[in-house]
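Open question from group meeting: does this chain pack into something compact, or does most of it stay loose? Before anyone orders reagents, we agreed to write out a predicted structure and look at it together. Recording both the input and the output here so the notebook holds the full record.
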Amino acid sequence: MNLTTYLDRWLAESVALNARGKTLDAYRYQIERNIRPALGEKLLLEVRSRDVSTLYLALRRDGKSAATIHQTHAVLHRAFREALVEGLIQSDIMALVPAPRIEHREPGALSESELALLLNRAHASPYVRLWTFMANTGLRFGEAAGLRWGNVETDRVHVRETLCRRGRTWSLEPPKTARSRRTVPLPLAAQKALVRNTNPHGLAFPGTRGEPLWEASVLRAFHRACRTAGLPRHRLHDLRHTFATRLYAAGAHPRAVQELLGHSSIVTTMGTYTAN
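C-alpha coordinates returned:
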Protein backbone atom coordinates (compact mmCIF):
# COMPACT_ATOMS: atom_id res chain seq x y z
CA MET A 1 0.00 0.00 0.00
CA ASN A 2 1.11 3.57 -0.47
CA LEU A 3 1.68 5.96 2.42
CA THR A 4 -1.64 7.74 1.89
CA THR A 5 -3.60 4.49 2.18
CA TYR A 6 -1.72 3.49 5.32
CA LEU A 7 -2.11 6.89 7.02
CA ASP A 8 -5.85 7.00 6.28
CA ARG A 9 -6.26 3.55 7.84
CA TRP A 10 -4.01 4.45 10.75
CA LEU A 11 -6.04 7.57 11.53
CA ALA A 12 -9.32 5.66 11.43
CA GLU A 13 -8.26 2.51 13.27
CA SER A 14 -5.64 3.70 15.74
CA VAL A 15 -5.57 7.45 16.33
CA ALA A 16 -9.35 7.89 16.31
CA LEU A 17 -9.74 5.21 18.98
CA ASN A 18 -6.96 6.36 21.29
CA ALA A 19 -6.68 10.14 20.95
CA ARG A 20 -8.79 13.15 21.86
CA GLY A 21 -10.59 15.09 19.16
CA LYS A 22 -8.04 17.91 19.02
CA THR A 23 -5.18 15.44 18.62
CA LEU A 24 -6.98 13.63 15.79
CA ASP A 25 -7.70 16.93 14.03
CA ALA A 26 -4.08 18.03 14.43
CA TYR A 27 -2.77 14.74 12.99
CA ARG A 28 -5.20 14.89 10.07
CA TYR A 29 -4.17 18.50 9.34
CA GLN A 30 -0.46 17.62 9.27
CA ILE A 31 -1.09 14.68 6.97
CA GLU A 32 -3.30 16.61 4.55
CA ARG A 33 -1.21 19.78 4.38
CA ASN A 34 2.37 18.63 4.82
CA ILE A 35 2.84 14.88 4.39
CA ARG A 36 0.45 13.66 1.70
CA PRO A 37 1.46 16.15 -1.07
CA ALA A 38 5.13 15.17 -0.84
CA LEU A 39 5.14 11.50 0.19
CA GLY A 40 1.59 10.22 -0.15
CA GLU A 41 2.07 8.31 -3.41
CA LYS A 42 5.22 6.51 -2.29
CA LEU A 43 4.81 2.89 -1.28
CA LEU A 44 4.98 2.49 2.49
CA LEU A 45 7.83 0.00 2.15
CA GLU A 46 9.81 2.39 -0.06
CA VAL A 47 9.77 5.51 2.12
CA ARG A 48 13.32 6.21 3.28
CA SER A 49 14.76 8.46 5.96
CA ARG A 50 16.22 10.75 3.30
CA ASP A 51 12.68 11.28 1.90
CA VAL A 52 11.56 12.54 5.29
CA SER A 53 14.63 14.76 5.69
CA THR A 54 13.97 16.21 2.22
CA LEU A 55 10.35 16.88 3.27
CA TYR A 56 11.52 18.84 6.33
CA LEU A 57 13.87 20.95 4.18
CA ALA A 58 11.05 21.68 1.73
CA LEU A 59 8.71 22.72 4.54
CA ARG A 60 11.37 25.03 5.92
CA ARG A 61 11.89 26.60 2.48
CA ASP A 62 8.13 27.13 2.24
CA GLY A 63 8.27 29.17 5.43
CA LYS A 64 6.75 26.62 7.79
CA SER A 65 7.58 27.24 11.43
CA ALA A 66 9.85 25.00 13.45
CA ALA A 67 6.84 24.03 15.56
CA THR A 68 4.90 22.89 12.46
CA ILE A 69 7.81 20.79 11.22
CA HIS A 70 8.21 19.29 14.68
CA GLN A 71 4.51 18.35 14.69
CA THR A 72 4.91 16.73 11.27
CA HIS A 73 7.80 14.73 12.67
CA ALA A 74 5.69 13.60 15.64
CA VAL A 75 2.96 12.28 13.33
CA LEU A 76 5.39 10.36 11.13
CA HIS A 77 7.28 9.02 14.14
CA ARG A 78 4.14 7.52 15.66
CA ALA A 79 2.76 6.26 12.34
CA PHE A 80 5.93 4.41 11.34
CA ARG A 81 6.43 3.01 14.82
CA GLU A 82 2.96 1.44 14.68
CA ALA A 83 3.56 0.21 11.12
CA LEU A 84 6.65 -1.61 12.42
CA VAL A 85 4.65 -3.21 15.23
CA GLU A 86 2.07 -4.41 12.68
CA GLY A 87 4.82 -5.94 10.55
CA LEU A 88 4.07 -3.68 7.59
CA ILE A 89 7.67 -2.46 7.42
CA GLN A 90 10.97 -4.11 8.30
CA SER A 91 12.58 -1.22 10.18
CA ASP A 92 11.58 2.10 11.67
CA ILE A 93 13.03 4.69 9.30
CA MET A 94 12.14 7.49 11.72
CA ALA A 95 14.78 6.21 14.12
CA LEU A 96 17.30 7.61 11.61
CA VAL A 97 15.62 11.01 11.31
CA PRO A 98 16.49 13.45 14.12
CA ALA A 99 13.64 15.49 15.51
CA PRO A 100 13.72 19.03 14.09
CA ARG A 101 15.01 21.57 16.53
CA ILE A 102 12.42 23.87 18.03
CA GLU A 103 13.25 26.99 19.92
CA HIS A 104 11.95 27.11 23.46
CA ARG A 105 9.25 29.75 23.77
CA GLU A 106 9.20 31.53 27.09
CA PRO A 107 5.76 31.66 28.68
CA GLY A 108 4.08 34.90 27.72
CA ALA A 109 2.76 35.81 31.15
CA LEU A 110 1.08 39.18 31.54
CA SER A 111 2.18 41.48 34.32
CA GLU A 112 -0.35 42.62 36.91
CA SER A 113 -0.73 45.97 35.19
CA GLU A 114 -1.06 44.40 31.72
CA LEU A 115 -3.73 41.98 32.92
CA ALA A 116 -5.66 44.78 34.62
CA LEU A 117 -5.45 46.93 31.49
CA LEU A 118 -6.55 44.08 29.23
CA LEU A 119 -9.57 43.16 31.35
CA ASN A 120 -10.55 46.79 31.79
CA ARG A 121 -10.45 47.57 28.08
CA ALA A 122 -12.33 44.34 27.32
CA HIS A 123 -15.07 44.91 29.91
CA ALA A 124 -17.79 44.76 27.24
CA SER A 125 -16.58 41.46 25.74
CA PRO A 126 -18.82 38.43 26.38
CA TYR A 127 -15.64 36.53 27.27
CA VAL A 128 -14.14 38.86 29.86
CA ARG A 129 -15.45 36.78 32.77
CA LEU A 130 -13.89 33.66 31.25
CA TRP A 131 -10.52 35.39 30.84
CA THR A 132 -10.67 36.70 34.39
CA PHE A 133 -11.47 33.22 35.67
CA MET A 134 -8.64 31.57 33.70
CA ALA A 135 -6.09 34.14 34.87
CA ASN A 136 -7.06 33.54 38.50
CA THR A 137 -7.32 29.74 38.48
CA GLY A 138 -4.83 28.53 35.88
CA LEU A 139 -7.44 26.33 34.19
CA ARG A 140 -6.83 25.41 30.56
CA PHE A 141 -9.38 26.67 28.04
CA GLY A 142 -11.00 23.24 27.69
CA GLU A 143 -11.24 22.88 31.46
CA ALA A 144 -12.86 26.29 31.91
CA ALA A 145 -15.17 25.93 28.91
CA GLY A 146 -16.20 22.47 30.15
CA LEU A 147 -16.76 23.53 33.76
CA ARG A 148 -20.29 22.75 34.95
CA TRP A 149 -22.08 24.22 37.93
CA GLY A 150 -22.18 20.82 39.58
CA ASN A 151 -18.41 21.06 40.03
CA VAL A 152 -18.47 24.59 41.45
CA GLU A 153 -18.48 25.44 45.13
CA THR A 154 -18.35 28.89 46.70
CA ASP A 155 -14.60 28.91 47.21
CA ARG A 156 -13.34 26.14 44.92
CA VAL A 157 -13.94 24.27 41.69
CA HIS A 158 -13.39 20.59 40.95
CA VAL A 159 -11.80 19.96 37.55
CA ARG A 160 -13.46 16.75 36.44
CA GLU A 161 -14.25 17.40 32.77
CA THR A 162 -12.73 19.11 29.77
CA LEU A 163 -14.39 20.24 26.56
CA CYS A 164 -13.37 18.16 23.53
CA ARG A 165 -14.42 18.82 19.95
CA ARG A 166 -14.35 16.56 16.92
CA GLY A 167 -15.32 18.74 14.00
CA ARG A 168 -18.69 20.24 14.87
CA THR A 169 -19.49 17.65 17.53
CA TRP A 170 -18.42 18.06 21.13
CA SER A 171 -18.29 16.17 24.38
CA LEU A 172 -17.26 16.67 28.00
CA GLU A 173 -14.61 14.10 28.87
CA PRO A 174 -12.38 13.37 31.87
CA PRO A 175 -8.99 15.10 31.76
CA LYS A 176 -6.16 13.09 30.25
CA THR A 177 -4.22 12.47 33.45
CA ALA A 178 -5.07 11.79 37.07
CA ARG A 179 -3.27 14.95 38.20
CA SER A 180 -5.37 17.06 35.85
CA ARG A 181 -8.40 15.93 37.86
CA ARG A 182 -7.91 18.35 40.72
CA THR A 183 -9.54 20.88 43.04
CA VAL A 184 -8.59 24.52 42.63
CA PRO A 185 -9.34 27.23 45.22
CA LEU A 186 -11.11 30.34 44.01
CA PRO A 187 -9.72 33.77 44.88
CA LEU A 188 -12.25 36.57 45.10
CA ALA A 189 -11.70 37.70 41.49
CA ALA A 190 -12.49 34.20 40.20
CA GLN A 191 -15.57 33.95 42.42
CA LYS A 192 -16.89 37.23 41.02
CA ALA A 193 -16.30 35.98 37.47
CA LEU A 194 -18.73 33.11 38.10
CA VAL A 195 -22.22 34.45 37.46
CA ARG A 196 -25.04 31.93 37.76
CA ASN A 197 -26.84 31.27 34.50
CA THR A 198 -29.20 28.72 33.05
CA ASN A 199 -28.31 26.66 30.01
CA PRO A 200 -29.14 23.14 28.80
CA HIS A 201 -25.73 21.73 29.68
CA GLY A 202 -25.17 23.39 33.06
CA LEU A 203 -22.04 25.16 31.82
CA ALA A 204 -20.48 27.92 33.88
CA PHE A 205 -19.27 29.70 30.72
CA PRO A 206 -21.70 28.87 27.91
CA GLY A 207 -21.90 30.44 24.47
CA THR A 208 -24.61 32.94 23.62
CA ARG A 209 -27.09 30.16 22.81
CA GLY A 210 -26.16 27.97 25.75
CA GLU A 211 -23.82 25.76 23.73
CA PRO A 212 -20.13 25.24 24.59
CA LEU A 213 -17.72 27.94 23.51
CA TRP A 214 -15.58 27.68 20.39
CA GLU A 215 -11.91 28.20 21.25
CA ALA A 216 -11.18 29.86 17.89
CA SER A 217 -13.88 32.49 18.49
CA VAL A 218 -12.66 33.19 22.01
CA LEU A 219 -9.08 33.46 20.78
CA ARG A 220 -10.00 35.96 18.03
CA ALA A 221 -11.75 38.11 20.60
CA PHE A 222 -8.72 37.82 22.89
CA HIS A 223 -6.41 39.02 20.14
CA ARG A 224 -8.71 42.01 19.51
CA ALA A 225 -8.67 42.80 23.23
CA CYS A 226 -4.87 42.73 23.23
CA ARG A 227 -4.76 45.17 20.30
CA THR A 228 -7.28 47.47 21.94
CA ALA A 229 -5.20 47.51 25.12
CA GLY A 230 -2.02 48.22 23.15
CA LEU A 231 -0.47 44.91 24.20
CA PRO A 232 1.46 42.35 22.14
CA ARG A 233 -0.55 39.42 20.86
CA HIS A 234 -0.97 36.78 23.56
CA ARG A 235 -2.34 33.24 23.53
CA LEU A 236 -5.23 32.18 25.73
CA HIS A 237 -2.78 29.79 27.33
CA ASP A 238 -0.78 32.81 28.51
CA LEU A 239 -3.51 33.43 31.08
CA ARG A 240 -2.49 30.11 32.63
CA HIS A 241 1.14 31.24 32.54
CA THR A 242 0.08 34.48 34.22
CA PHE A 243 -1.52 32.51 37.04
CA ALA A 244 1.60 30.37 37.55
CA THR A 245 3.94 33.35 37.47
CA ARG A 246 1.88 35.11 40.13
CA LEU A 247 2.08 32.00 42.32
CA TYR A 248 5.85 31.96 42.08
CA ALA A 249 6.03 35.67 42.80
CA ALA A 250 4.00 35.03 45.95
CA GLY A 251 6.53 32.40 47.09
CA ALA A 252 4.54 29.26 46.26
CA HIS A 253 6.46 25.98 46.34
CA PRO A 254 6.89 24.31 42.90
CA ARG A 255 5.01 21.25 44.16
CA ALA A 256 2.00 23.42 45.01
CA VAL A 257 2.18 25.05 41.57
CA GLN A 258 2.29 21.58 39.98
CA GLU A 259 -0.83 20.48 41.84
CA LEU A 260 -2.80 23.61 41.00
CA LEU A 261 -1.87 23.46 37.31
CA GLY A 262 -2.48 19.73 37.07
CA HIS A 263 0.94 18.90 35.64
CA SER A 264 1.65 15.18 35.64
CA SER A 265 5.30 15.77 36.53
CA ILE A 266 7.15 18.30 38.67
CA VAL A 267 9.76 18.34 35.89
CA THR A 268 7.21 19.97 33.59
CA THR A 269 6.47 22.66 36.15
CA MET A 270 10.12 23.35 36.94
CA GLY A 271 11.10 23.28 33.26
CA THR A 272 8.40 25.70 32.18
CA TYR A 273 8.38 28.29 34.95
CA THR A 274 11.03 30.03 36.96
CA ALA A 275 10.53 32.14 40.06
CA ASN A 276 11.28 35.75 39.41
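Observations to bring back to the group:
The mean pLDDT is 91.
The longest helix spans residues 66-86.
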